[in-house]
Amino acid sequence: MILIKENLFHLIEDDTPSQPDEKYIKKDRQVRAIINICIEDSQIIHIKYETTAKATWNKLKAIHERSNLSSKLLLLGKLYATKMSEDGNMNEHIAQMLELIDKLKAVGEEIKYDHIAALLLVPVPKSYESLITGSRS
After folding, report:
1. With 80 as the cut, is the pLDDT of residue 103 above it?
2. Where are the domains of the chain?
3. Domain of life of the organism in this record (predicted)?
4. Does 47 score more than 70 pLDDT?
5. pLDDT at position 83, please?
6. Whole-angstrom Cα distance, residue 38 to residue 32?
7. What's the pTM?
8. d(Cα 82, Cα 123) in Å, to the nearest integer?
9. How far apart are CA 98 and CA 49, in angstroms?
10. Is 7 left (phi over 0), alpha (psi -120 to 50) or beta?
C-alpha cells in the first residue's frame, strides 16, 4: 500500500531499464528501503544481495508463494475446526472466524458469503439455537 500511495509500485512491476537514470536509481533505492523497513528482520537474509527493488520483491515473492498452498490448507483447517464453547463469547467467536477468513483472502482463497454465514452459525452451542433458527427464516 505504501508503494501505491507513493506512486512507486511500478518499480517492482515493470522491468528495470537497461540504463537507469539518476532519478530512477533514487526511486529504486527508496523502494528497497521501504521493503526493508516493512519486512521482519529474519527476511533480510534473503534479499541482502539483491540490487534492484524488482529483484528484491521477486525474491521475497518466490520464497513466500511456495508456502501459499500449505498456508491455505492450515488456515482452512483452522477455520473448519473452530467451534464456540458453551460459555464462549459470540463476538470473540465471530472475530476469530473473520480473522481466519481475512488471512485466507490474503493468501488468495476467497470464501463465499453463504459459506461464511454457515461457518459462523453452525459451530455455535445449542444455547444459540434460536439465533440459528431465526437466521434460517
Report:
1. yes
2. 1-65, 82-134
3. Eukaryota
4. yes
5. 85
6. 10
7. 0.52
8. 7
9. 38
10. left
